[in-house]
Specification:
The complex is a heterodimer of chains A (269) and B (135). Chain A is an alpha+beta fold. Chain A has six helices and nine strands, in the order H-E-H-H-H-H-E-E-E-E-E-E-E-E-H. In chain A, strand 3 and strand 4 form a beta hairpin. By secondary structure, chain B is an alpha+beta fold. The longest helix of chain B has 12 residues. Classes of the chains: A alpha+beta (269), B alpha+beta (135).
Chain lengths: 269, 135
């Protein structure tokens, strides 16, 4: 028994050292790829399949923070909104007990596009004949991207994750347009605001078999004086197809416990 | 033999552990970034929970008085990537923690590294590719 354990450990370690990348990812309860999976590979991966984004993708730490922290070209309307927002990240971050980010304090949904601008953890993409489904590890939520040629709704009721349509611009580039986002969501963890006029474009470029690039452009004339690009060619790597992803759910009861512990330790300070 | 193998694995895995991904952590403004304090204490509770896990330890000062410190970590997903787990502590465990303390003097700190009762040292969690520089 002990001998078998040692043999299996040696085999696992050999696999780990000899083949950085796909073989490094644990296939059960996986939190994502290890850093070594993002090293350049000595041989280039095979070409990408045509019109195919299916797989489980991970941007590593690059997906977990976000350059949405950058001070953006705010309109006076956005400057007013900013005064109400007390974020826990970014250049305007406040002390823990003063944070009023509804995702942190109440576990309100992150919403879209925040879910791709911060905490973009491993994400599975599924294609059906008329939809692309994006399944996020973070919050264990999903989006539907319609690919049946329908137009975006003219006056959509707001949704936490908006309403999305997508089309193939060429065999390797899938472009998604999203409208109808709920104004209660923050654009990102830095507390940047958005209005209900927000339109978001996501460009997914399948570079080769192993890599996908994501570019996100924000267009919200009520909040920003010009369109801007918080994600620019963010690289996501394909995970092994048998990867079982962990859960990451914001539970209101857990958030309350967290805040209670912090408040208790801060008493009298 | 098994024990030796175990340490060998830890040593081999050590270069895979990246620096602390503090940017993922909300509430970072509360911590005295760059300041490090090392505390030796006894575990009273390990809360393996979102949004961030807490390790509570009792620390004795020179006069023998106990202070209950709360050591904050990242979330379970990120900690799992750094080799931490749900069942890794039992109340009564003696640990040595290096942390970034709160600026306001409250006995809270953000973990930088920990030495477990068996002598293993773990970093502050995390994995994956490094972040791109801010534009």
């Amino acid at each position: 028994m002990r001998r078998r354990l040692i043999v299996s450990i040696v085999i696992s370690m050999a696999a780990l050292v000899s083949a950085p990348g796909l073989s490094l990812a644990q296939t059960w309860d996986s939190a994502g790829l290890p850093a070594s999976a993002f090293q350049p590979s000595p041989t280039p991966p095979p070409p990408a399949p045509r019109r195919d984004l299916t797989g489980i993708w991970d941007a590593g730490n690059a997906g977990i923070s976000g350059p949405g922290h950058v001070a953006s070209p705010f309109t006076p309307w956005a400057e007013e909104r900013l005064k109400e927002m007390k974020p826990g990240n970014g250049p305007r971050a406040v002390h823990e007990t003063e944070i009023n980010d509804p995702l942190n304090t109440l576990c309100d949904p992150a919403g879209f596009p925040r879910t791709v601008l911060y905490e973009l953890r491993p994400t599975q993409i599924v294609q059906t004949p008329n939809q692309v489904l994006i399944l996020y590890l973070y919050e264990r939520r999903w989006r539907v991207i319609w690919t049946d040629g329908r137009a975006l709704p003219k006056d959509p009721d707001p949704r936490w994750y908006g309403y999305s349509v997508g089309r193939w611009e060429d065999d390797f580039t899938f472009v998604v347009q999203t409208v109808g986002m709920d104004e209660r969501t923050w654009l990102d963890n830095a507390g940047n605001p958005h209005s209900s006029d927000l339109r978001v474009e996501e460009r997914y470029r399948r570079v080769d078999r192993d890599w996908l690039e994501l570019t996100v452009t924000i267009d919200d004339p009520q909040a920003y004086t010009k369109p801007w690009t918080p994600r620019n060619r963010l690289r996501l790597k394909q995970m092994p197809p048998d990867t079982d992803l962990r859960e990451w759910i914001c539970a209101a009861s857990e958030a309350a416990t967290y805040r209670g512990v912090v408040a208790e330790q801060n008493k009298g300070k | 033999m098994v024990r030796d193998m175990f340490f060998a694995i830890v040593l081999m895995a050590a270069p895979l552990m990246p620096p602390v991904p503090l940017a993922a952590h909300h509430g970072g403004a509360s911590f005295d970034v760059g300041k490090e304090v090392t505390l030796k204490g006894t575990v009273t509770e390990w809360i393996w929970s979102n949004p961030h896990c807490f390790l509570k330890i009792d620390v004795k000062d020179a006069s023998g008085a106990l202070t209950r410190w709360v050591i904050e970590t990242q979330n379970p997903t990120t900690m799992t990537q750094g080799g931490w787990s749900r069942r890794m502590f039992t109340p009564g465990d003696e640990v040595t923690v290096t942390l970034e303390p709160y600026k306001n003097g409250a006995p809270i700190g953000l973990v930088r590294s920990i030495i477990l009762p068996d002598g293993r040292k773990l970093g502050a969690g995390g994995g994956g590719a490094p972040r791109p520089p801010a534009p």
